[in-house]
Write a structure and sequence with these properties.
single chain; three-stranded antiparallel beta sheet; rod-shaped
Amino acid sequence: MKPELHRIEITLEQLAHSQTTDSSPGQSEPHQDTDTLSFSMAVKPFPANKHQGKTPTLPKIKPPSFSNHRHSTNPALAMNLLKEIEEVVASWQEELKKVLKQIQDIYTDGPIVDGWLESHLRESQQAQGVVRLAEDDRLMDYIKERVNSPNAKVSYESPRTGYRLCGLDSDGQSWSRNCPTDQVPSVSIAIARYQKLRQLLNRKQELETRLSQLSETLVVMHAHLSKD
């Protein structure tokens, strides 16, 4: 007999025996014959390791967000920039026109003096005469004559304040000349005109430099546009 048929017969006998045992009352659970073969197999899962470490939680990395506003094209940007440049240039030209008018007015107002005034004490006529006598070695004779004179009068004249106009020449050497007291107001106004003129000339040069630099930049840009 073939082994397969033999196993089938054994299985049928086991089934018949189990049915007979189940039908008997008051009988305890059947004792499974150790000699019989059983085909029921149960696979138990492996017990979980309680001491197994937990998987560490890694920090979530936020994906970088890229903005493409620089890459986007704004058709109105170039025109807006040109309008702003035009407004700035117009304000510079208007200010330069006013500065040139003020410079012209200063030249037509009157004389302009590049210098400054210095004050000094001026000796009286009597003191100057005493100095001249001392230079001639006649100082003692002059004093005796004035003391022995019966009509001699002692007078004192306070020193007066004088002014000198000072300045620098083209070589940087200082110069000075006496300025009469009655001419001090007009000379002071002439000096003030020069100070104002100097400020206007500096502003004029600054505006012209800005316009020149901007013109050079625009010429280069225009050359690149012409190549396209």
